[in-house]
Amino acid sequence: MNICGAFAVWIRRLLYLAVAASALLLGASGAYALFRDGGLRGYLLMAHTSLGGLFAVTLALFAVCYGERCRLVPDTPVHVGQRICFWLFLALGATSALSVSLCMLPLAGTHGQHLLVATHRYCGYGIALTGLAHLYFVVSSKKTSCNARGGEA
To answer: Domain limits at 33?
Structure first.
């Protein structure tokens, strides 16, 4: 592997880590606000909003970097469950970002605002479930490849 290939792999892994970390921190701050009486406000709201911007940017870069590898065609080396999780994660992430962005604009009435906030919340739940499913497929594919090689590490 040449230096450009090694650098691309390093960047791709760093991007994967950034998307996973921002999604995890967004989920943690959202869950904390959900179980707290007051909801998101103060520094927690500022952190959640800042992480949302990071998540949106890294999600777009994630789509560009991993889109080719996760095509929904039979001859792709990535497990079909991981590919489905990838596209579902992108769809839910884009819907979540779009719904909260539209919520900040005076386009929808009161009912529309509530609908957009609910869409944002349920997309967040879906992102968390998709992340768990992706983790399951990653771990199961590692076990399968390890067993196929005869238990080598």
So the answer is: 1-66
